[in-house]
Amino acid sequence: MESCSAMAKINLNQPILSPSPLPRNTISNLLHPSPLFFSDRKPFPSFFLKLQKQSPLADNYIEATPSIKCHATLPGIYSEASTLADIDWDNLGFGLIPTDYMYMMKCARGEGFSKGELKRYGNIEISPAAGVLNYGQGLFEGLKAYRTRDGNIVLFRPNENALRMRAGAERMCMPAPTVDQFLETVKETVLANERWIPPAGKGSLYVRPLLMGSGSVLGIAPAPEYTFLIYVSPVGNYFKEGLSPINLVIENDFHRASPGGTGGVKTIGNYAAVLKAHTAAKAKGYSDVLYLDCVHKKYLEEVSSCNVFVVKGNTICTPAIKGTILPGITRKSIIDIARGLGFEVLEQLVSVDELLNADEVFCTGTAVVVSPVGSITYMDERTAFGDGKVGRVSQQLYTALTSLQMGLSEDQKGWIVKLK
Ligand SMILES: *Cc1c(COP(=O)(O)O)cnc(C)c1O
Asked: What's the short name of a Pfam family annotated to this entry (predicted)?
């Protein structure tokens, strides 16, 4: 066994630790559920560990990770679970940092998910005719695990993500994990990657569940097989501005969603559809794009990946959820928190005029948290808010939400799920 001397890189010629692949749908598995699934135990009890030779593709992935201490030894995995990964925790952005494990579970069309497994993080194999590749039958979710100052690991309202994935799956003709399966598999994936959860206050572990039609189709139809996959990445701020105000541009020609479409679910195609406007806006120096309703081109919808709020006096308005806007969990939480703080919160049509006459504007989302808006450009005219400073209401709501998420204030609403 290698010793845990400083900064040993993974030896790519060595076999690495990997959970044993468990046969699916066997009678014995149904009678004796895998200890890797729905258990409160630490991942990888030793009797389930097996040395497995890696594929060359997986090797490339491991190679791309930052240097890792003491990786390739059997006892290493236990000591590492509590040791932090060796990366620069002070400069996390919102980019992918590959971690140790991902979760995968498959099922056939018309059936439910029953059993999955943690795997070494790496490339997946998929049919060229997969429904997700050909017809965009796919959904994603996004949530964060935090390390609190008193040493806990927590999730914020993960049951809401589970329910939203189920609603989206129904819209996209896919089977979805149950709420319990979603919660257990997220928990298991987070704990298996524990050393990648940033220290308290430095960021969070972004958890990305995917649901996709992985079976082959040629004619347009729901795929015959589905894959649920969870991977994670440590993240810092989404916008390079951090809590400093962002600059948005209102898009007049391209639309994100239309009535009767899929704007209200986190389906993958919604994001490919905004790339053109998003890329053009970024090239002009804007942080992101604010979309209008596609019928009147007059009412606000949302930003590429976050919801929008407009503050005037003691009133906070946000566009109502009517199928074209993604029902954000941060949005829902901020509405609750703001009402608790004495604000009047209205979910209704919000016009561009109201927006431009607001005292403050901010965006909400898991990735962006609460991001104050410093300026909005509409028809080439720029309207600034709050002299480049963070607005009072945005700051107040940001503090209230993040204190709750990071365990600094009491969780009276039962939004925090403790993993450890
Ligand atoms: C994910 C997402 C949001 C924010 O939802 P949260 O649950 O708050 O993270 C808002 N708008 C769009 C388009 C999204 O994809």
From this structure: Aminotran_4
Does residue 357 form part of some domain? yes
Confidence (pLDDT) at 242:
65
pTM: 0.82
CA distance 36 to 18: 12
Give the other-Cβ count within 10 Å of 308's Cβ. 27
Q: Is 119 a catalytic residue?
A: no
Angstrom CA distances, 183 to 163, 405, 420, stand at 10, 17, 14
Number of domains the chain contains: 2
Q: Could you tell me the residue range of the domain that residue 83 belongs to?
A: 16-235
Residues 307, 312, 315, 320: is their CA dihedral positive or negative?
negative
Residues of the chain with pLDDT under 70: 1-82, 239-242
pLDDT of residue 34: 38
Residues 219 and 106 in one domain: yes
The answer as to whether 11 is a domain residue is no
Here the CATH number for the domain that contains residue 352 is: 3.20.10.10
Q: How many CA atoms lie within 13 A of 212 on its CB side?
A: 25
The Cα–Cα gap between 247 and 142 comes to: 23
Q: Is the CB of 366 under 6 A from ligand 1?
A: yes
Query: From the CB of 307, is ligand 1 less than 6 Å away?
Result: yes
Kindly state if the Cβ of 328 falls inside 6 Å of ligand 1. Answer: yes
Tell which residue, 385, 44, 56, has the closest CA to residue 188: 44
Give residue 23's pLDDT.
37
Catalytic residue among 266, 276, 282, 332: 266
- pLDDT tens sequence across 243-293: 889 999 999 999 999 999 999 999 999 999 999 999 999 999 999 999 999
Asked whether residue 384 is domain-assigned, the answer is yes
Phi, psi at residue 373, to the nearest 5°? -100, 125
Q: Rounded CA gap, 136 and 271, in Å? A: 11
The answer to whether the CB of 223 falls within 8 A of the CB of 216 is: yes
Asked whether the beta carbons of 274 and 289 are under 8 A apart, the reply is yes
Among the listed residues 182, 177, 194, 171, the one whose alpha carbon sits nearest the alpha carbon of residue 324? 171
